[in-house]
Amino acid sequence: MNMITVTKTRLFEGVWEGVLKTGSDVAPQIVVTHLAREIHDVSVEAGPDGWVVRVAIPANVLADGVQTFVIADKESGATLSSFSIICGDPVADDLRAEIDLLRAELDLLKQAFRRHCIETM
Predict the structure, then answer these.
(1) Domain of life of the organism in this record (predicted)?
(2) How many other β-carbons are positioned within 10 Å of the β-carbon of residue 71?
(3) What's the pTM value of the predicted model, to 2 decimals?
(4) pLDDT per residue as tens digits for the range 40-67
């Protein structure tokens, strides 16, 4: 396989979807793994922009923390792409959660400041 690119399109209803471009008319043979175990519910179908890859995320692999899935070429074992899902309590310490909390606090401060300005005029 020559220059292969994988582009995520969406994660919807527990199914990760992406477009795989190979420059070939032959369906690529890929394998998706999580913690070195193969995910079996993977489909590759021809699409308008390349090959549409769908990976159904099994509920039994979701747990607290970061779960990483690796998409690889079945023949060579070369990693083509990966995606991660973050779940549970450790997310509270995640930087994105902290930024969201800071934004909420900033909104409260802006409201209080505006109210103070109106009351002191």
Answers:
(1) Bacteria
(2) 22
(3) 0.72
(4) 999 999 999 899 999 999 999 998 888 9
